[in-house]
Amino acid sequence: MEQLLIDPTADCTADIDVSVIPDLPADTFVAPLTKPAHLAEDWLEPEQRTYSSAEHHIWDDLFAQQMELLPGRACSAYMDGLKRLDLGSGGVPDMAAMSEELRSMTGWEVVPVPMLIPDHVFFYHLANRRFPAGNFIRTRENFDYIQEPDVFHDVLGHVPMLTDPVFADYMAAYGRAGWKALHHNRLKALSALYWYTVEFGLIREEGELRSYGAGIMAGPAELVFATGARSPNRIHLDVDRVMRTDYVISDLQPTYFVIDSFQELYDMTVARNFDDLYAGLAPGFTYANQAVLDSDTVYHVGTQEYALRGGSGSGAAPI
Length: 319
What we know:
Layout: H1 53-67, H2 76-85, H3 95-105, E1 109-113, H4 119-127, E2 130-134, H5 151-158, H6 165-184, H7 187-199, E3 202-205, E4 208-211, H8 214-217, H9 220-228, E5 233-236, H10 239-242, E6 255-259, H11 262-270, H12 274-279, E7 298-300, H13 305-308
């Protein structure tokens, strides 16, 4: 395994016992999900399912579509990881084979889950360097977008970034941070951090803004929109600001947040005293998802034309 680049003593959550699933405090609000009867408390499927020929073809077509768009828009760490894992070899990739490769690089593995899983179980797996991936793939009818993350979103979007040692450490530390969010009943705030970094983050690279977020990588419209459209804001990441900012789940983002490096992302989040941060956070969000603040470092003030025209429901062009 590659030597990790992070000093774990800098992590204020390093003393948390991640060997057990964290308890849900009685006053912590989470999504009401029903665990399938055949699963244990970790929500893991016994094995990855067998996909049909038609489903393997859906993966291949989705992969080919994204490969037309990713070069020049995806960051170099993602493109390197995509190459190292050989995710375009044909059909839905085998999670066991991916895990063997990842363990040798950063100590991570990919594990199958049947659906969205509860936050506290998700934190438990991330903290133990396991990435839960949906054990199903979208249909042709939902080819370009599916709200619940499937194997294409989870594997093509997330897994290549887990080959980068610093980002891999950030993901594990995020899992440990979940324990504090549960204790303070501030899961929405921590979810906003995940949304604007892991799912929809941008990075400055070679003078350009490129994506590292999985929600961008796995969506053709979002990939072009996030990196080149005039509608969205692009603002430098500030952890306290982001965790107070609302986000859009079912449409293109009005705002994207930018980092200079994954080391910067790690340093500004993992060493942050979240106990103090949570103590000052309101239960809801402070800032709208289109807001530009006087304190922001702004790379591009968006026109918000796409959102103001009504977004995807109106048929507005993502420009």
